[in-house]
Specification:
heterodimer, A: alpha/beta, Glutaredoxin, five-stranded mixed sheet, elongated, B: six-stranded antiparallel sheet, 11% strand
Chain lengths: 178, 687
């Protein structure tokens, strides 16, 4: 076939489209939080009323992988994800810590756990929301995976679903365990 | 419930779009099959119908009736409006069961911004584009019906069929990538809040213009492909394209102007163009539409530049679509990590590849057979306009390369780089300056052929005046860098050339018996709008160059009562007070502005804090004086208890806005006169 100048747009277009199509998955849409691979912030939280063990950074640096779940009794999605947090603590075989975020009444968290069951190794009560801010908590619920040195390795925003649990969180924990 | 209705309407839109694509043109399938098969291409001379009268012909017969012609486009538009209304309703009543609402809205957001928020997330933006597209679809059915009633209207049906296909493809992309009507399994109590940057009246206004402009480009694209399929890239084709090019040009231009003014009033550093991805992806289609505007005029007048016009007609939408993909994807700006509604732009990219792969293939195959019509002389108006449109496309190419280069480099080497203003300025100046130089000639040149000495005679006044401008400015400000000076000189050149051409036309000796308004009538709406737009560009360039030369910036730490000198102005800082807005708290500073020790205004720059997102924004306050803008913004408190105040004095900045406005007025004038003509011609029911 005779070469024609009119083929140039097609060639240029094909080159451009090819480059972008080949790289379609390179930049994944999951954007790491600024805290990823950074040490978890320093904090020390009081226990829930009537319990004796609170939560502090020392709990996260005991040399084993742990999960930190931010929840609140006023948060409806937390209620929805709660059974899966129980499943997580059961199946992953790692301690799951709770951060009870900005309760109006300190006893609300206790009632909530009494009603739905308590999967947490221990719970810290963040009434002011200060620790939440240090962790970059944006909306409740959020779930962090933290390695044995206290480094934040993964952060999930929003309620944990069955899919997230099975396809993301559990494999991630296994991967970090190494 | 309403959201489900909207969802269903969106689905039906896809179905009717496919229906329109198939029903309007079985011929379309035939022609493309003919195009795609190598043996068949030579067999048919351009535009002759050679199809056997099989059952497809019956279809065409039924669809060609006017009542049927409007049926599908009207249905699609109504469905689109229904879907949009459902989405708007969800935002207005804050229905947080829709993740699209809870991602970007909040119950405390004022109503106007909640409505604006419906256009910002991917799904909402795509839906708005679809609605604009279905509006264009109906308008085009109307135009093609009126224009081509008598001639054979296979061209028109092909165009409508392509538009139907585009609607269907974009509808599918919307449903796959970011379906706006998905419900959340668990609804949050309240939304995550709207980004404060989006809580802005101008931003809300920008979106409809942007998507109408893009939809207009889709109309141009459909006409171009139909023209290619029928081998009818001719003068009548150019005439049909005219309103669409100007309308898209005005809409995109308005979106760009709004965008520029927003950057100017939101940021502390007094600039109005940052070359970031979203701005570039607006600028690109506008540049190509400008190029198209010019060579379309050549095509209409002289039936030359057919291939080039067709190329621009396709490419204008291509870069618009690609820009949409770049801004909607996570390639440049990471998507907010907290988004509940999963959104993806892969569909947009794949749709882009399919649509334009086919389009450029058709372009190649049919331009080969079409030839480029008659040729023209080197010194003629068409060659000047052709050169200008080539330069505009070159500018477009530079902007495109500047936009995607960092991305491609990152993919290849993994190294992140940024391409900023210095790159664009260095590369664009050698293209823009000759373009401005040439631009002044075109109106004074004759079509087909002209003589150099004749041009010299017509342009001498302009040449002398602009030389005087340059000399005056360069003697007065000898130590300045040359580029802005040349900019001012060339702006003066374009301005004086446009004005002297207008002058010459107005003072033509009326022939015997002509009324004295004859000269004014002879100018014609096209000439007037072109001159307005050219003068507007000259004013814009002069203003931009001048404000970049004589800009003064003062950054100081101010205490209450302190006075700050900038240009001819004196600002007195009165202090900061805490106020509450509708959904934000604000620290508002008060400044009293003096000019020659007379108070002229009070200025209130702010720092706003939006508690929902926990974000601070800065709002500058601007005084638009006769000779320049005064731009004030405040920053944080420093250690000594003073407040950081940034003051910019930008002389001739009103010229920039005035120039943009003049260009847009030029475009609107052209549309208005055309609409009036059309109403007269087809006779709106007189009674």
């Amino acid at each position: 076939m005779r070469f024609s100048i009119a083929v140039i747009p097609l060639v240029l277009f094909a080159a451009l489209a090819g480059v972008f199509l080949l790289n379609i998955d390179k930049d994944s849409s999951v954007v790491p939080s600024v805290l990823i691979d950074k040490p978890a912030p320093e904090f020390s939280l009081p226990p829930l009323p009537g319990r004796d063990k609170g939560l502090s950074r020392a709990d996260l640096t005991k040399g084993e992988v742990s999960v930190l779940n931010v929840f609140a009794s006023w948060c409806i999605p937390c209620r929805a994800e709660h059974p899966l947090i129980k499943r997580l603590s059961h199946e992953a075989n790692v301690p799951v810590y709770g951060l009870n975020y900005k309760e109006k009444d300190p006893r609300d968290g206790v009632k909530w756990l009494a009603e739905l069951g308590d999967p947490y190794a221990s719970v810290g009560m963040d009434l002011s929301g200060r620790t939440g801010i240090d962790f970059g908590v944006y909306g409740v619920p959020e779930t962090f995976i933290i390695d044995g040195n206290g480094q934040i390795r993964y952060k999930h925003v929003g309620p944990v679903t069955v899919e997230v649990l099975e396809k993301v969180l559990l494999p991630k924990i296994e991967e970090i365990k190494g | 419930m309403l959201a489900e209705l909207g969802h269903f309407a969106l689905l039906l839109m896809v179905v009717t779009g496919i229906g329109q694509a198939v029903l309007f043109s079985p011929l379309w399938l035939h022609s493309s099959l003919r195009m795609l098969s190598p043996q068949g291409t030579k067999a048919t001379p351009a535009g002759t119908p050679d199809f056997p009268d099989d059952e497809t012909a019956d279809h065409v017969g039924t669809v060609a009736k006017p009542s049927n012609l409007y049926l599908l486009p009207t249905t699609i538009l109504l469905l689109g409006l229904l879907a949009e209304a459902a989405l708007l309703n969800a935002f207005i009543v804050s229905d947080f069961t829709l993740p699209i609402v809870s991602d970007v809205s909040h119950s405390s957001t004022p109503l106007l911004y909640r409505i604006g928020a419906a256009f910002t997330p991917d799904g909402g933006a795509m839906l708005l584009w679809l609605v604009a597209l279905s509006l264009i679809n109906l308008l085009m059915a109307f135009q093609l019906h009126k224009d081509r009633e008598t001639s054979d209207d296979r061209f028109g049906r092909n165009a409508l069929s392509i538009l139907g296909l585009l609607i269907a493809i974009l509808g599918v992309v919307t449903l796959i990538d970011a379906d706006p009507f998905l419900r959340a399994s668990v609804a949050p109590l309240d939304g995550r809040g709207m980004s404060p940057q989006s809580q802005d009246l101008l931003k809300v206004l920008r979106e409809p213009f942007l998507y109408l402009g893009l939809a207009g480009l889709a109309g141009i694209f459909a006409l171009t492909l139909a023209g290619l399929l029928e081998h009818k890239i001719d003068r009548q084709f150019a005439e049909t394209m005219r309103s669409w090019t100007i309308a898209s040009w005005v809409c995109l231009g308005t979106a760009i102007a709004i965008n520029a003014y927003r950057s100017y009033s939101e940021q502390a550093w007094g600039g109005w163009w940052y070359w970031d991805t979203s701005e570039n992806s607006l600028l690109l289609p506008w540049l190509l539409t400008t190029a198209l505007l010019h060579c379309r005029a050549v095509l209409e007048k002289t039936a030359t530049l057919r291939g080039w016009t067709a190329f621009l007609g396709i490419t204008a939408l291509a870069v618009g679509w690609f820009g949409m993909y770049l801004t909607r994807s996570d390639l440049f700006a990471p998507l907010p990590e907290t988004q509940l509604l999963p959104s993806d732009s892969t569909g947009l990219l794949i749709g882009f590849c399919i649509v334009f792969g086919l389009a450029y293939y058709l372009f190649w195959r049919s331009v080969d057979q079409m030839g480029d019509g008659r040729s023209f002389e080197v010194i003629s108006r068409e060659s000047a306009m052709f050169l200008n449109s080539v330069m505009l496309s070159l500018i477009g190419a530079v902007v495109l390369i500047g936009t995607i280069y960092p991305l491609v480099l990152k993919w290849i080497t993994g190294e992140p780089i940024t391409v900023g203003a210095p790159f664009y300025v260095d590369v664009l100046i050698p293209i823009v300056l000759p373009m401005l130089f040439l631009m002044a000639f075109a109106p004074a040149l004759r079509w087909r052929q002209d003589e150099i000495w004749m041009i010299g005679r017509r342009m001498k006044l302009a040449a002398i005046l602009s030389l005087i401008t340059v000399l005056f400015v360069s003697i007065r400000f000898i130590d300045l860098s040359p580029a802005p000076l040349i900019g001012i000189g060339l702006a003066g050149w374009v301005l004086t050339a446009s004005l002297s051409d207008l002058w010459a036309r107005l003072w033509r000796h009326p022939e015997h018996g002509e009324s004295k308004y004859r000269n004014l009538q002879l100018l014609g709406p096209r000439y007037v709008s072109m001159t307005l737009a050219h003068i507007g560009l000259a004013v814009l360039i002069a203003g931009g160059s001048a404000s970049s030369i004589w800009e003064e910036q003062v950054v100081i730490s101010a205490r209450a009562g302190q006075s700050i000198q900038a240009g001819p102005y004196n600002l007195q800082y009165e202090g900061v007070s805490l106020l509450a807005g509708e959904n934000y708290a604000t620290r508002q500073a008060t400044f009293i502005l003096y000019r020659h020790s007379l108070p002229v205004a009070e200025l209130f720059p702010e720092i706003r804090y939006y508690p929902i997102r926990g974000v601070e924004t800065r709002e500058a306050d601007i005084w638009h004086g006769r000779d320049g803008d005064l731009h004030v913004s405040i920053g944080d408190r420093d250690d000594d208890g003073g407040r950081v105040v940034t003051v910019h004095y930008l002389p001739m900045m009103p010229w920039v806005w005035g120039g943009m406005l003049l260009m847009l007025i030029g475009g609107c004038f052209s549309i208005l006169t055309r609409v009036i003509l059309r109403l007269k011609k087809f006779g709106v029911p007189a009674s």
